[in-house]
Design goal:
binds magnesium ion; elongated; alpha/beta; binds guanosine-5'-diphosphate; about 55% helix; 8 strands; SRP54_N_sf; SRP54; 8-stranded mixed sheet; about 450 residues
Length: about 450
């Protein structure tokens, strides 16, 4: 998958203490191939690569604590930009009801998405009305009615003998009479874009003057979805796109190209057949998902802002050579705490929450003082060699620091866990091996 391929490229970069122009070119070649293979429009790919290269070369990455990470960060930001940057919200009419017209090819998921959108609006305390304007597909009206019943939303239908334009027109009055603040118009689709379909949609458009024209596209169809979007956009002035079937084995191409090609933002993503599987589309989350990194990226950002590079390298060296002592523990804790609450950081590290013992490793502000007291009550030898701390020494330390033996025991365990965590943390974040450590 695209995720796997990109992760491979980046795992090579990640450990690098220095990223040369050759490294960058090589990585970008692979990113380019991965995107093309994921069915991203080739012009979009070309522009994307050019932008990432320009930004990466413009930054003096060698100065960074983690140059490989800087490149990944740039890629992530550009992917996010490609998909619109920030979340695009649903328009709202000055005077209710807000009219949302759904459009798209047959089978794209218009009817299903209409129901899901109604459900989403209900959660926001709105009163959506569903309107059945697909009078052609057998049982299309019934399908919408079933969805409406399921979520307890009214469905406006006039059978299949009234024209869709007329149904749409009358639905607005119905909404006003019944205090529906949103009207969602489900329309018919065809297997292919054709004149008759477009004419009908344009006519409905003219009558209801929608605040939103959402094109529903099947993400599984890749670049075809983008072509469909472009044709619809030329004729209907879309205001947004809904990507459906993102739960399937999609290659990601549609999500990455549609905004760039049509200029239309993706507003929602559907990932399943269930009624509550529609979400507002977040470009930054999608980018992270594509990069397969979860919240690693926000952690990287924080680390870059908060950790002193030289200190981190020295710490890492100590960790590797097992020189890590209780004094370092205190210092390291201060460094890591700059990143934010420790338990939050732990949640962000992949695999970390699965690690044994980590869950009880909550270090809060108040505890820090006690931890310091405990460490200060150790002798120099004990700080250097924690294994010296047998039961009677632990008792002495507890008494000396005004804490309890339970706390002392817990800290020593935390120290061991911390060592493990920092080992994992530094191998993910920083240069690997003795060679990578040099600038
Ligand atoms: P329409 O012709 O555009 O109205 O499409 P429908 O709403 O009837 O959906 C066509 C098929 O796609 C139905 O079987 C839906 O259950 C399915 N479908 C719609 N959205 C999704 C989705 O996000 N994920 C999956 N897996 N299936 C979907
Ligand atoms: Mg339908």
């Amino acid at each position: 998958s695209l995720s796997n391929r990109l992760q491979n490229v980046f795992s090579k970069l990640r450990g690098k203490g220095k990223v040369t122009e050759d490294d960058l070119n090589e990585a970008m070649r692979e990113v380019r191939l991965a995107l093309l293979e994921a069915d991203v429009n080739f012009k979009v790919v070309k522009d994307f690569i050019a932008k990432v290269k320009e930004k990466a070369l413009g930054l003096d990455v060698s100065k960074s604590f983690t140059p490989g990470m800087v490149v990944i960060d740039i890629v992530n930001k550009e992917l996010t930009e490609l998909m619109g940057g920030t979340q695009s919200k649903l328009a709202k009419a000055n005077k209710p009801p807000t009219v949302i017209m759904m459009a798209g090819l047959q089978g794209a998921g218009k009817t299903t998405t209409s129901g899901k959108l109604a459900k989403l609006l209900q959660k926001g305390n709105h009163k959506p009305l569903l309107v059945a304007c697909d009078i052609y597909r057998p049982a299309a009206i019934k399908q919408l009615q079933v969805l409406g019943e399921q979520i307890n939303a009214p469905v406006f239908a006039l059978g299949d003998q009234t024209s869709p334009v007329e149904i749409a027109r009358q639905s607005l009055q119905f909404a006003k009479d019944n205090n529906n603040d949103y009207v969602i118009i489900d329309t018919a689709g065809r297997l292919h874009i054709d004149e008759a379909l477009m004419e009908e949609l344009k006519n409905i458009h003219q009558i209801v003057k929608p605040d939103e024209v959402l094109l529903v596209v099947d993400a599984m169809t890749g670049q075809d979805a983008v072509n469909v979007a472009q044709s619809f956009h030329e004729q209907l002035e879309l205001t947004g796109v809904v990507l459906t079937k993102l739960d399937g084995d999609t290659r990601g191409g549609a999500a990455l190209s549609v905004k760039a090609v049509t200029g239309c933002p993706i507003k929602f993503a559907a990932m399943g057949e269930k009624i509550d599987s529609l979400e507002p589309f977040h470009p930054e989350r999608m980018a992270s998902r594509i990069l397969g990194m979860g919240d690693m990226l926000s952690l990287i950002e924080k680390a870059q802002a908060g950790i002193d590079a030289d200190q981190a390298k020295e710490m890492e060296r100590k960790m590797r050579t097992a020189e890590f002592t209780f004094d370092d523990f205190l210092e390291q804790m201060a460094q890591v705490r700059k990143l934010g609450p420790l338990d939050q950081i732990m949640d962000m590290l992949p695999g970390m929450n699965k690690m044994k013992g980590v869950k009880d490793m909550k270090i809060d502000e108040k505890q820090i003082g006690r931890v310091e007291a405990i460490v200060r009550s150790m002798t120099k030898d004990e700080k250097q060699k924690p294994e010296l701390l047998n039961h009677s020494r632990r008792k002495r330390v507890a008494a000396g620091s005004g804490t309890t033996i339970v706390e002392v025991n817990r800290l020593i365990k935390q120290f061991d866990d911390m060592k493990k965590m920092m080992k994992q943390f530094s191998s993910m974040m920083g240069p690997k091996g003795p060679k990578g450590g040099k600038k």
